[in-house]
Amino acid sequence: MALAIDLNADLGEGFGVWRLGDDEQLLDVLTSANVACGFHAGDPPTMRRVCALAADRGVAIGAQVGYRDLAGFGRRRIDVDPEELTAEVLYQIGALDACARAAGARVRYVKPHGALYNTAAADRAQAEAVAAAVAAYDRGLPLLGLPGSALSAAAEAAGLSFVPEAFADRAYRADGRLVARREPGAVIDDPAEVAARAVAFARERRVTAVDGSTLTVDARSLCVHGDTPGAVHLAREIRRALLDAGVVLAPFAS
User: Fold this and answer.
1) Helix or strand or coil: residue 108?
2) Predicted confidence band of residue 161 (pLDDT cuts 50, 70, 90)
3) SS3 for 103?
């Protein structure tokens, strides 16, 4: 069998008249789209528009759920009561799924965004709250996140499928976590370096951490951030490099 991997990015992150990233061009490159659900970014018209574009291109639609934090773009940790967090994640999945179904598609997976992603990777209570929401909505929906994380364990405990991902454009610490965005070098924007890292993830399951150590990362999906400057060019370079390396690009969620 040919080696295959998914390529995902965060889309629909504008709000009202404000636009972030080029959703339409990215959808010509990706196999999966993490669509903002209105809490950290996005609004109903944007959600519906991006779902329609994704459905038209056969790109898998994922619910990108986050904290209720439009002002902070969901990058500020919020100490939400677990029951409230479950309800808010459930609300976001349902809202995006309505938009997807109106376009003749459906939500096929769930991925936390920003601070919720990082918190659920380490905080058992918040990880379990996210998993509980997915299980309450549809146990057939996979959760996408960091391998070996609290979210991975929570998904397994809730009877959910967990899909590990890697970040081609983010620096890694020696413990396998992402370098915090506030630290220098956390986001990698050199197209050649990002493309080379993507191929290393896909073919060799490895990445070099900031301390020079080599990490094993068994990822089924690669993420490139849609709000990174030059995101479309980065995504195209990643796609080209993967195809040139004999890697098949395909969504992980059926």
Assistant:
1) strand
2) very high
3) coil
Output the six-digit token pair for 134.
């997915």
Rounded to whole angstroms, how far apart are CA atoms 129 and 124? 9
Which positions ≥6 away from 80 have C-beta within 8 Å? Answer: 67, 88, 126, 129
pLDDT digits (tens, 9 = 90+) for 185-229: 898 888 999 999 999 999 999 999 999 999 999 899 999 877 777
CA distance 221 to 242: 12
Rounded to 5 degrees, what are φ and ψ at 34?
Answer: -90, 105
Taking residues 137-155, what's their average pLDDT? Answer: 97
Q: Which two tokens stand for residue 249?
A: 């690009």
Block residue for tokens 């376009």: 103
Give the tens place of pLDDT for each residue, 219-237: 999 998 777 778 899 999 9
* pLDDT value, residue 114: 93
Interatomic CA distance for residues 240 and 247, integer angstroms: 10
- Cβ atoms of 52 and 100 within 8 Å: the answer is no
Supply 7's token pair: 């390529």
243, two tokens: 């195809």
Nearest by Cα to 111 from 83, 91, 134 = 134
> Which of 8, 29, 2, 31 has its CA nearest to residue 203?
2
Tokens 């924007």, located at residue: 189
List the structure tokens of 113.
Answer: 């965004």
Rounded to two decimals, the pTM is 0.94
